[in-house]
Specification:
alpha/beta; Purple Acid Phosphatase, chain A, domain 2; 5'-nucleotidase,  domain 2; six-stranded mixed beta sheet
């Protein structure tokens, strides 16, 4: 008996020395694939516009988890799904405009040991040459199987790569949404490229790979369902799967939403943005390399401590500090912060009546009037449209720095002036108003369709109008007045609109027939900076040129007040995507 016990203990000791996950059972091997997406330049876990640490995101937190998984299973592969080098003041204002500088995101990714990265649409924001210069410093392959340059070669030189772990060969194919030219057409090198349907490019890549790989992983920078090409699905991850059932795992992104599902034998995962989550695939194969088991999980970083190794990389620290100085009024060249950009006489946004329901999206506010006023002055257009890009966007009372400007206008958009008819403008306004849910009797709050991202809701200046939320989508815009008279369908006007909205809505949705007749030489954000430099102190002003009608929110009902008190106290969830109805 003692001999048997000793033998058992010896065997347990041997088993304990085998790395967890490396051997699943006799002859079986588990490969772990970790996937990030839409990191948007958030290395540190820091909100530069708020000058504050975040608590649940950032590449430093992600790296803590990566180290943990690698310790559990040496057979771990790390990939990224794009929209990685763009998205913060640090990336956009200090490095992407100066591609000759070593990019801190790429430096951090090299340190973290990525095995491959797929291009996202935001990698193209500064044109092809700048993108190639920035990404060319990576120690890992850049994948994009569906974008080709004028000479027929792939834009990054590679569409797929093979990573081998413990004798298991894993093919990774990267594709980006082919809608890139909708957003970035006209920038250097963009229009010279061709953008193939993702499903077709993946099929070709799988044929090229042939029997070289044991597992097929697709990293697709797009949502599960078509964004623009609903008829053919060229920008749909679902279409990739439908046409290529041999895919074993798929990492998706672009839409900033969690995806965690299994279709047939294929595991599919997608994280939120900014390093809020990381996707984990665990795929076990037998001695014949056939899949025995496949799992996917999406890991939230909210309880993860940032890895100090990332925050101690010399060039990352320098970039972080340089950004903080830049926001405080420095030059962005390492100098200490100087004078403020300007000042305000008071806070700009009204307080939210209901926590989580932004006043800036249900009424006219000084922030939106300011942006539209600046766009009208710079473009000399008749009408202007702009969106509240963040539900928390505001300008504080007192001195204003670059972070405050970024907070109300986070994208590096330029401004267009476009000819538009009265009928086209009304159609555009109806498209924008689709973001709201229809009000029904008993609803005590305005709510929003969760299928419409916040940044798609535009507010207009230069016209007066009403939004009747008792009506279905497409029939909500009422009483549009231009210069004191009802706007006629055949009336000809000019519209100030940012370059992204022009491409991704006005043109792609067929809302306007006219082409841009003027484009600004500076970004809209720079226009706002210039306005504060000239006009400070700036007072919050609102002209209330639009309002929501057709609703009775029962403002004097004591029961409504009781419910709102509970929402604001955190006792009830915010009714953001579905109104609370007293008749239910």
């Amino acid at each position: 008996m003692k001999k048997i016990t000793a033998l058992f203990l010896a065997l347990m000791l041997v088993v304990s020395l085998v790395p967890m996950g490396s051997v699943y059972a006799e002859g079986e091997t588990t490969i772990t694939i970790l996937g990030t997406s839409d990191l948007h330049g958030n290395i540190w876990g820091f909100s530069y516009e708020d000058n504050a640490e975040t608590k649940n995101n950032g590449m430093a937190r992600v790296y803590t988890y990566i180290k943990q998984v690698r310790a559990e299973n040496p057979n771990t592969i790390l990939i990224d799904n794009g929209d990685t080098i763009q998205g913060t003041i640090m990336t956009d204002d200090l490095f992407n405009k100066n591609p000759e500088r070593e990019h801190p995101v790429i430096i951090a990714m090299n340190y973290m040991g990525y095995d491959a990265m797929t291009l996202g649409n935001h990698e193209f924001n500064w044109g092809i040459p700048s993108m190639k210069t920035i990404l060319g410093r990576a120690d890992f392959p850049m994948l994009c199987a569906n974008v080709r340059t004028a000479d027929g070669g792939l834009v990054t030189g590679e569409g797929w790569t093979i990573v081998e772990k413990d004798g298991v060969k894993v093919a990774i194919i990267g594709v980006v949404t082919p809608d890139v030219p909708i957003w970035d057409g006209g920038k250097e090198g963009i229009d010279e490229c061709t953008y193939e349907a993702a499903n077709t490019a993946v099929k070709s890549a799988i044929a090229e790979i042939g029997d070289k790989a044991d597992l097929i992983v697709v990293s697709a920078h797009m949502g599960m369902y078509a964004e623009f090409d609903e008829e053919h699905g060229s920008d749909s991850a679902q279409k990739i799967l439908d046409d290529n059932p041999e895919i074993d795992a798929m990492l998706v992104g672009h839409m900033h939403m969690i995806v965690n599902e299994k279709q047939g034998d294929t595991v599919i995962g997608g994280p939120r943005n900014g390093g809020r989550d990381i996707v984990r695939f665990d795929i076990t194969v037998g001695s014949d390399k056939a899949i025995v088991d496949a799992k996917v999980d999406v890991i939230d970083m909210k309880d993860t401590e940032p890895a100090q190794e990332i925050r101690e990389i010399e060039k990352v620290v320098e970039a972080h500090n340089e950004t903080i100085n830049f926001i405080a009024g420095g030059t962005g060249d390492g100098e200490e912060g100087g004078a403020a950009l300007g000042s305000t006489t008071a806070k700009f946004q009204p307080e939210n009546e209901i926590a989580g329901i932004p006043s800036g999206r249900i009424m006219d506010t000084p922030v939106m009037d300011l942006i539209n006023k600046i766009q009208l002055e710079n473009s000399q257009a008749d009408v202007s449209s702009a969106a509240l890009f963040k539900n928390t966007s505001d300008l504080p009372e007192g001195d204003i720095n670059y972070g405050d400007i970024f907070n109300i206008y986070k994208f590096d958009n330029t401004l267009y002036r476009v000819p538009i008819t009265g009928a086209e403008l009304k159609a555009y306004m109806e498209w924008s108003a689709e973001c709201y849910n229809q009000w029904v009797p008993g609803d005590i709050n305005i709510s929003f369709d969760p299928e419409y991202p916040d940044y798609l809701y535009d507010m207009f200046a230069g016209v007066d109008y009403e939004i009747d939320l008792s009506q279905p989508k497409g029939e909500r815009i009422k009483n549009v007045m231009f210069k004191g008279e009802p706007l006629k369908d055949d009336e000809e006007l000019t519209l100030a609109v940012n370059n992204y909205r022009y491409s991704s809505a006005l043109k792609s949705q067929g809302l306007v027939s006219g082409k841009k007749e003027w484009e600004s030489s500076s970004s809209i954000r720079d226009m706002i900076v210039a306005y504060f430099a000239e006009h400070s102190p700036v007072a919050p002003e609102v002209d209330n040129n639009w309002k929501i009608v057709g609703v009775d929110l029962q403002l004097d009902n004591p029961k409504r007040a009781e419910i709102i008190e509970k929402i604001n106290a955190g006792e009830l969830e915010t009714p953001y995507s579905k109104s609370i109805n007293l008749n239910d």
